[in-house]
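We read letters as residues; the fold follows as tokens. Both lines appear below.
***
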Amino acid sequence: MNPFEIRYNDVIQYYKTNWRMIEQTHLEKQACQPLPLKHDGFNQNTQIPFDLKADHIRSAMQEFLDFLGFVNTALFSKQIPRLESFLMPANFSSIVGEFMNAAIPKYCPSIVKNNYHNGHPDLLPAGLFEGDAVQHGTVGIEVKGSRHRSGWQGHNAEDCWLMVFVFDSNTSRDALNNIPPRPFRFVGVYGAQLEKEDWNFSGRSETSRRTITASVTKNGFNKMNANWIYRA
């Protein structure tokens, strides 16, 4: 037999035997790069306090996409799962929110990150508080990242201007459920001034150790949806 035919047959047999692994690796590599933002997906008429504009939000979101693509590509080169694929879902959502807290003030000088550890809200008007830090205030913007399109949660039912970055991505549970790799993408950004009545406390059983949380009600969601900032 021609040596070339032998090598060719070996290659074909290799692909037949390892096709699923090869396909999975290809999908994993593709998923390292987040999907780009929809250029016409930003609402230029949205009303955000403290001179924060949709274009500032766009720049911060793009910075996160660049960050995640860089990190995931580096992880893939070392055969390590993507960030969103091995972190617990709540931890990755926190990373999205914290990144926005750090990035937004870089593009909007009228707003700063709250320098108080675990302070509320996350973003403050620049110069309003000494050291740009407050333990608990009512003036500012609370920021959250979430995979959920509604029913967003917080630990306290209170008046605040809430902004939620909704995204879609794999989770740490997907590999066990044979869900194929897919790239991260921002689905939407929503924000509005919420009042205490726009929250509903989630109960728990006597034996549950879950932290008590409050969820945004339908009325609160309608406020935020009416003032949408980005839609993919």
About this structure: The radius of gyration is 22 Å. The first strand starts at residue 111 and ends at 113.
